[in-house]
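[Automated response] Your request has been received and processed.

Submitted sequence:
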Amino acid sequence: MNFPENIRYTKDHEWVLIEGDIATVGITDFAQHELGDIVYVEIETKGKPLAAETVFGTVEAVKTVSDLFLPVSGIITEVNPNLDSAPEKVNSDPYGEGWMIKMKVDNPEDVKNLMDADAYRKVVN
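Generated structure:
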């Protein structure tokens, strides 16, 4: 499993990378591995203000559909356009080309409430 040190993690297996007041969000390597082959990502909450831990979309794998939870409060400003035609990027590169959304964060300090790589590693091992 891959646990990049420069990002934060949620108990629901999302990751977030904060750059200023912009966050990039996706699901973790652990989550994509547990879900199996991703066949569809649905996110219809772009432009809506959402609270942390709110469902912002779903990811569909061959065997299941799973909700996606927002790690911090804010407004989704961008959805990864490549996932429409290549949802498998979530499996092959969950922390890179498989990112799901970019958002403007209400309070960048909220990310401090999330887990670092060591804490998340303990949750999934």
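Summary generated for your ticket: The beta strands are 8-9, 14-19, 22-27, 38-42, 49-50, 55-61, 65-69, 74-79, 101-105. The helical segments are 29-35, 89-92, 117-124.
If you did not submit this request, please reply to this message.
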